[in-house]
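Lab notes, practical 5.
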Amino acid sequence: MQFNMKIPAILAACFLFAVNGSSAAELTQTDLFVQGEGGYHTYRIPALLVTQKGTLLAFCEGRKNSRSDTGDIDLLMKRSTDGGKTWSNQQVIWDDGPNTCGNPCPVVDEKTGTIWLLLTHNRGDDNERDIKTKNSKGTRTVWVCKSTDDGQTWSNPVEITDSVKKPEWGWYATGPGVGIQIKHGPHKGRLVIPCDHSFEIAGDAEGQTAIQYASHSFHSDDHGKTWKLGGVISARMNECQVVELADG
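Output from the prediction step:
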């Protein structure tokens, strides 16, 4: 599922509101993040989540200077406690100076109420092309933070790269979109995060390598205390979303 917009001018959310108490519903669109406003050139990579208390949390990347995937990018959020009729001012969850903080992928633990937010990070002067070919100054790393007060405040991000990324992988992205908590079957309660990554494959007779992308997931069976790498779908896969089948 592709969430990136070709012309990322506005990130909007749509909600259903009852009309005059009747069973009919009206579709209402609200512009949440508008290009050029709020101190950011462009907003991209949206994710929308409903908490246990019914609060709506809208996440996205705030790209400071351009629409590029590279550079000074912050992780932002807005909250609505009235079903999307009104929204808070945008809140900065993670700002690491000139570096890239993004790819928000939230998930709610329905047992504890904790909201987990999975993220990725890289140096602002590295780009995807160099990261996937291992010619960058740094690499793409994976992080997690949490909120225990319905999204009002957030913990500092903690790195979990070693647990969920193989050393041979280059590019890496959590989401885009949301994670899920499995409701049925032997893995009931498991938190699952959809992701993608790049990897090298054997090339031609001259020894040239090629880069392909794959989808994968990682998960937690202890309510977010630890995270483990899950299954991989390869190759010629990329950004993805995860759903639960009826049997878990």
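Observations recorded by the TA: Residues 10-233 form a domain with the Neuraminidase fold (CATH 2.120.10.10). Confidence is low (pLDDT under 50) at residues 1-9, 16-20.
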